[in-house]
Amino acid sequence: MTGSGQIWYNRLKWTILLENAPNLAALCVGIRPSPRAVCDLKAMTTHAAVILAAGKGTRMNSRIPKVLHRVCGIEMVCLVEEAARQAGLAPIAVVVPHESQQIETAIGPGVCYVTQTEQLGTGHAVLQAEGQVEAADNILVMYGDVPLVNAETLKRMMRLHDDTEACITLLTSTLVNPEGLGRIVRDRSGAIKAIVEEEYADDDTRSIREINSGFYCFRARWLWKHLNGISPSQKGEVFLTDLVALAVQQGMTVESVLSADAYETIGVNNRIQLAEAEAVMRQRIRERWMINGVSMPDPSSVYIDHTVELGEDTVILPNSHITGQSHIGEACKIGPNSVISDSILGKGCEVISSVIRDSHLEDNVDVGPFSHIRGGSHLEQGVHVGTSAEVKSSRLGRDTKMGHFSYMGDAHLGTNVNIGAGAITCNFDGEKKNKTRIGDDVFISCDTMLIAPIKLGDRSATGAGAVVTKDVAPDSLVVGMPARKVPRKPKSDP
């Protein structure tokens, strides 16, 4: 068969294979694909990630593993794993030290964990992961203490690596101060010759501004074939940087991607660098939200965690902190001097110089100034909490008004309740927390003490300074200490 008939036959044969083969590689033996099929096969190359997270991090002077120190509310290694996942890398293997339960708990399922029992260099660490990623065509090596790396940069690395059929593709960067970092040495044509660590560099090499970030994309077959053959250093360590010189000697293609953001290659080795990474990440977060419709009159004084969600037309005023799994709705006003932690706020809420923790505020709730909404609280639509008030593990019904210097703990309030200044629930009897239940349209006067457990019926009321020790029936008025029922004056006609 020749000519157009052969071309038609080849296309038909490859169409059948591509549509029906569960394992294309197994069916390709002995078959010469058409040019289009080659492109399809190339697009199907897989990229796995190996994240190195077994370093001791002694310069952190901490009992916490280095990669678990947080940047904008998330552990560094989790930020790296997230970037790998967003870039489409799979599988992801994380190399961890002995006794790595903390790291595995932080990252969670969905990745493979391999243990490096001895700290014998980056090359040795990657070798530990071979069994978990051996099916991949390419291996992208990442570091768990480089928290600012961007998923788009990783995608650029993989695209260039595939397009050029490189043996190794490096991520490089040009920093203002490259002190202590390995320099990228190139020949006159611009091709990479080697990576020279600063301690072995001469003055000319130290003047080079382009540094090695430590992120590499390797052709997997070449990597596993040669990694075991790398000679260890005097300390017995095997380093990935030696593979670059080896590839150059063999005439293999070594490519590089220059990071568009010099900061994303910053490694964290001490608390100073941790603070620097935090500052960069916070600026990224603030800029992202301002672009998406959130106002910040003084951005540098606002702190927003990586996991926070903010609605359009919300305003974040100076010295406000929004952390954890917080979700703020549209058209809210936060601050100044407010802290929102792991809380949900609906639309149109206002929080002035107050603290909200582990709580839920529905639409149009206002709090503060100087108030504290503690864990497990739920404020329904239209609730008002005034100055220097506290709510703990309580639900305040729709349109309830809680005045200043008041405390509601372990309480359930109905709709349209009035809590006067100085009114409190006495919820702790010295042994356990007791519940207070307040019905709809209840009026609690100033300085009322509600001795839990207790229940106040709908439309009931207390007099100023009442100490309520017994349940109050609906439509009743109680006064005094201890509170007693008295007749209520009928409301005068308007």
Main features:
single chain, 494 residues, alpha/beta, Spore Coat Polysaccharide Biosynthesis Protein SpsA, Chain A, UDP N-Acetylglucosamine Acyltransferase, domain 1, 9-stranded parallel sheet, 8-stranded parallel sheet, 12 helices
Q: Secondary structure elements and their pairing?
A:
Blueprint: H1 3-20, H2 24-27, H3 35-43, E1 47-52, E2 70-71, E3 74-75, H4 76-86, E4 92-96, H5 101-107, E5 112-115, H6 122-128, H7 130-133, E6 138-143, H8 151-164, E7 168-174, E8 183-186, E9 192-196, H9 203-206, E10 210-219, H10 220-227, H11 241-249, E11 254-258, H12 271-291, E12 303-304, E13 309-310, E14 315-316, E15 321-323, E16 327-328, E17 333-334, E18 339-341, E19 344-345, E20 350-351, E21 355-357, E22 360-361, E23 366-367, E24 372-373, E25 378-379, E26 384-385, E27 390-392, E28 395-396, E29 401-402, E30 407-409, E31 411-413, E32 418-419, E33 424-426, E34 436-438, E35 443-444, E36 449-451, E37 454-456, E38 461-462, E39 467-468, E40 477-479, E41 484-486
Parallel strand pairs: 1-4, 1-6, 4-5, 7-11, 12-15, 13-16, 14-17, 15-18, 16-19, 17-20, 18-21, 19-22, 20-23, 21-24, 22-25, 23-26, 24-27, 25-28, 26-29, 27-30, 28-31, 29-32, 31-34, 32-35, 33-36, 34-37, 36-39, 38-40
Antiparallel strand pairs: 2-3, 6-10, 7-10, 8-9, 40-41
